[in-house]
Amino acid sequence: MARSSYGVFGWHSSLYLTYRACIKPYVKSGDVVLEIGPGRGAWTKAIAELGPRRIYAVDTVPAEHSGFWAYVGRRPNIDYVVAGDFSLAAVPDNSVDYFFSFGCFCHLRREMCEAYVLSLARTMKSGGQGFLMIADYDKHNACMVDHANTSIERAFQGRRFRLVRGAYWLSLKLMRRRFIADPLDKAAETPHVPGAWYHWGLDRACAALEKAGFAVIERDVGIVHRDPVIHFAKR
Q1: Domain 7-136+185-234's class?
Q2: What pLDDT, in 10s, does the model give residues 165-191?
Q3: Is the pTM of this model over 0.85?
Q4: Where are the domains positioned within the chain?
């Protein structure tokens, strides 16, 4: 972030930028979409409004647990799939035009991520586009260290917005609790903990995608200061 002549109109939501940069230009009417980790369905609902022919929303919990249908609404073109493994068995081979996952792979261990990538290679069409957010401790740590430039902090300098400044410092404090000094994932030998934040790393993630038959178009789209979002396509 930097100073802007647009003033208060110059600040944008990272989530909205994700939609504008990674979803809207790529989802077309008639496409088959695969989303892993939809949660309540915020991204799914936005994707559905673009008119794809079918959406496969794959998660590990029933839709009732996350409130998916209550938020998205029942739609005949959405198949909600409860995954018991990483095979994506419910998704036909060579059927997916567009893949999206945000806020899911960061909670999976490296071997889980790579198992999903192999299954994804089977399901995607040649030329199909994908966007994948992952956890990278190095980028997270750099974001925390350079918070004066990666946050909205400088917008408040010299102003007396005490309430807003207080909320900002509380947010920064909570984020710093997740500061990870060691960039290596030492959790490989321990049982998987749902909700934990697991380092995959940009280099390893891109290497796994390329090995599975994908071309990495952008290693990091750069729309989120804390987490990489990889843009790739099926060869």
Answers
A1: alpha beta
A2: 666 666 666 666 655 655 445 555 567
A3: yes
A4: 7-136+185-234, 139-176
